[in-house]
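Input record (one chain):
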Amino acid sequence: MTSLNALPSRLLLVTDRRQAAAPLDAIVTEAVSAGARWIWLRDRDMPADARRALATRLLAVTRRHGARLTIGGDIDLAAEIAADAVHLAAGASVAAARARLGPAALIGLSAHDLSEVARAETEGADYVTLSPIFATQSKPGYGPALGLAALMEASRLGLPVLALGGVTMARAAACLRAGAGGIAVMGEAMRAADRAGGVRAVVQALSDALQSETA
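The corresponding structure, as predicted from the sequence alone:
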């Protein structure tokens, strides 16, 4: 099991081109330039060739800035481009990912309740995202919101838990106080690209909130 110190960062930036106010390449470049050190390429509904090309470009950007790229849901793609990590859907096989990517790969799972967090720990995942913690603009019909109490309970199971779903700058510190190992942010960062320097401002504000809580 991975300790918090072994995670690339306590801030995981999640892509979503449907909400993005600029091309994902530009958003990720601005984010890592601002200090983001962990990017999750989600966008699993892209055509395979386009997603492979995007993943390759984003990997080059993250490597150039000392950040790490997680590929969402596609072990073969992660292996093909030699990505740093893969994030799997709830119930997916951690063992299969380890066999394909090797023991050093960072493997995460999505979880939506305590039983899925416990299962991920038993199967040897390095971390989980637990969602939705709050109601979210990204998936307004997805829920119900689990709340900070569920986050606190999940974090006691021992596996690093990243809070996902409606996590904003104002809520980041509360998630850490509830025991989260970190936060995963999608919509707030994607939509911030509608203004110059917006992504940088969001990344810096989130990083400051996390830093102040752990200082």
